[in-house]
Write a structure and sequence with these properties.
Layout (H helix, E strand, L loop, with lengths): L1 E10 L9 H18 L4 E6 L4 E9 L4 H25 L5 H4 L2 H18 L1
Parallel strand pairs: 1-2
Antiparallel strand pairs: 1-3
Helix pairs in contact: 1-2
């Protein structure tokens, strides 16, 4: 199909919540490893960005038409986002002490937001 695939994931630190620099770098390293497992022959990078995004480039692509190229790019982008979300949810990058109560804190915050919305 394509001779060369290049994927750059632009990570948004805010999507992880309040994290240390160390945890953020660990997240990027784990994500890069996960992407490499999915696309071992691709050129991969995880960089800082203002918003989470994926840049996909097929160099010397062998696609029958523009629509096929766009569909392939969309498929890769979707899979990258799935992998990133899995890495975020697994929290292997997180310092244990800091994130022990993360789920409970998030649930409590969502409950409070729901109650505040209902009161108005």
């Amino acid at each position: 199909m394509a001779r060369q695939l290049s994927i750059t994931y632009l990570a948004d630190r805010d999507m992880l919540g309040l994290v240390s620099d160390e945890d953020y770098e660990q997240f990027k390293d784990i994500l890069l490893e996960a992407l490499h497992k999915e696309w071992p022959k691709a050129t991969l990078a995880v960089e800082d960005g203002e918003h989470a995004a994926v840049e996909v480039v097929f160099a010397d692509g062998d696609f029958p038409n523009e629509k096929a190229l766009q569909e392939a790019m969309s498929d890769v982008e979707s899979r990258v986002h799935e992998i990133a979300n899995d890495v975020i949810e697994e929290r292997e990058w997180a310092t244990e002490e800091e994130y022990e109560g993360y789920d409970e804190d998030l649930e409590e915050l969502e409950e409070r937001r729901g109650r505040d919305d209902d009161d108005y």
